[in-house]
Amino acid sequence: MCESLPADPYLAFLDELVTARLLIPSGVRGVYGRGGDFEHVVEQFERLVTREGRPEKAEVMRFPPLLNRAHYAKINHIHNFPDLMGSVDTFTGNEADHRAMIDTFQTGGDWTRSLVPAETMLVPAACYPMFPTATGTLGEAGRTVDLRTFVFRHEPSDDPARMQIFRQREYVRLGTADQALDHRDAWLRRGKALLESLGLPVEAVVANDPFFGRGGRLAKATQREQTLKYELVVPICSTEKPTAVSSTNYHLDYFGKAFDILLPDGSPAHSACIGFGLERIALALFKHHGLSLERWPREIRERLELD
Amino acid sequence: MCESLPADPYLAFLDELVTARLLIPSGVRGVYGRGGDFEHVVEQFERLVTREGRPEKAEVMRFPPLLNRAHYAKINHIHNFPDLMGSVDTFTGNEADHRAMIDTFQTGGDWTRSLVPAETMLVPAACYPMFPTATGTLGEAGRTVDLRTFVFRHEPSDDPARMQIFRQREYVRLGTADQALDHRDAWLRRGKALLESLGLPVEAVVANDPFFGRGGRLAKATQREQTLKYELVVPICSTEKPTAVSSTNYHLDYFGKAFDILLPDGSPAHSACIGFGLERIALALFKHHGLSLERWPREIRERLELD
Fold first, then answer.
1. Structural domain boundaries of chain B?
2. pLDDT at B63
3. ipTM of the complex model
């Protein structure tokens, strides 16, 4: 191309995606509409995960992107990831309050000062809304749950793979430490194989969550030391800094304790999950196979049943 | 059943849905997880709409549940429906600010006072995020867009059909007044026939939106007088007050003006849409055909390709 390209590889790929109508800009960094071909890839990847991956007897639950604020308060997200949160505020005033808010709005003031916290927060991770529904005592077999939801992370970015709102598909295991770890280990292998079968160069790496501030450094180190989190990474805009398209997390008995999910012996249940970042997987596929679905390799098209 | 039933027909149906694992309570009124059978019905209804309904050359766009706050400010939602809004707030402070917020959190104070408005609002209607992307001059044929998104309306309720967050599937037409009205009229007929083909007793009625306060009375009356809104209603929990499961809206040139969507002659484009309330349609189907998918009439199962 003759025109001057943006030097930034993130902006350059974003430009290509927008030109191809795969992503539709909203004017907010990291918030996009998805075009028909993009959505088709997401849907067909999900069908592949269901077809080949759904563990026997997994319960299907689909949560909307809102989390009970009282449940949010129990999981230390406000301590660990305050900068990523989304709180939902709303207006509950009377007509006089409304007139005052409109006056502030019309004079360019911060009209949101008239709002109050609603009963909900935006969901930070697909499994969070599920745990509070599992309070009680598990059977010997534990439980396996199949989840998908839109999750919110406030980190405005020009990297098309770092969206503020995106979908996670997850398989979560609740049970003993062994049951949780078996799930984690099996899915780390299975997830890697699944992504490789789609022509993506995947690596599994030990990882940590972006705990906030200086106080978060210890949490990051501990998480890595205990190898609680693995990411499956694929180069999208950068080969030096490949992008996590999937991750496994072993939560120890953190959620069992927080929401009184108990093993038959009365001790708190352990949990582990694998999450697929659906938008990132679609982006990786478009990066590696091209922006035009018709030109993708036949074996990839067939595997995803794109036709 | 021998146990005492809730007298309220809404709570009674909600209880049945929860017992059947079709809806999963979150502890917040009007916010539920969806069970596997519920989600299957939603997905298969969407496929039916796509198969039989998608207008030729409709562009597919799928927006996440967030709307650019600057676009929100242009559509008078804050004037007309302030009580339904969802504003997204987030934390952008430093570590000292964080410690202060945590102190407030731990002492039970309103820690959300430490937050600031994010760049987004929750989406109030599926077509709102699309209009700002259509700025410019349309061709003679106008445009038809196929949308689906989660939308938010803060109206906590025990009526399972009045959710705070639910999905709308929409076909929107942008063009001349005639093009918009033709779309509206055709889809009012087609939508009614589609729902009737699923065994639902549907009626089309003139309707209005719930404009806020005393000032909203005139807007309601005008909307009805100009027959801008029709609803397709079906009895779910009440025969006297049937539930709107779908609606058509003719917006005149409201969005054309707000977002500079122009006709070839330079005048603002008109628009109209049909929206299907996916959760309400699923609830109507469960109400009319029973809570167990296996026992639904064979013709309905076949029509929705449930097997």
1. 18-86+124-304, 88-122
2. 98
3. 0.95
Per-residue pLDDT tens over the stretch B195-209: 999 999 999 999 999
Which residue is closest to A25 within chain B, CA to CA?
B133
Residue B35, strand partner residues? A61
Q: Which of A103, A122, A166, A260 to mutate to test the interface with B (most CBs of B within 10 A)?
A: A122
Phi, psi of B133 (to 5 degrees): -85, -5
Give A89's contacts in chain B (Cβ within 8 Å). 86-89, 112
What is the CATH architecture assignment of A18-86+124-304?
2-Layer Sandwich (3.30)
Task: Report pLDDT for B92.
Answer: 98
CB pairs under 8 A between A and B: 202
Give the confidence band of A53 by pLDDT, cuts at 50, 70, 90. confident
**Which tokens belong to A94?**
């009377």
Put simply, whether the predicted model's pTM sits higher than 0.90 gets the answer yes
**Mean pLDDT taken over chain A:** 96
Structure confidence at residue A2 as a pLDDT band (50, 70, 90): very low
Cross-chain residue pair A33–B61, CB shorter than 8 Å: yes
Weakly modelled stretches of chain B, pLDDT under 50: 1-3
CB B29 within 8 A of CB B157: yes
- Which of A38, A68, A93 minimises the CB distance to B28? A68
8 Å CB contact of A102 and B133: no
Query: What integer pLDDT is reported at residue A232 of this predicted model?
Result: 98
Question: What sign does the dihedral B21-B157-A124-A46 (CA atoms) show?
Answer: positive
Contact assessment for residue A121 and residue A129, using Cβ atoms and an 8 Å cutoff: no
Q: Is there a contact between B66 and A164 if contact means CB atoms under 8 Å apart?
A: yes
The single residue listed with the structure tokens 């501030």 is A213
Contact A166, B64 (CB under 8 A): yes
Asked whether the beta carbons of residue A63 and residue B26 sit closer than 8 angstroms, the reply is: yes
Does the distance separating the beta carbons of B213 and A120 come in below 8 Å? no
Of B60, B85, B213, the CB nearest to A35: B60
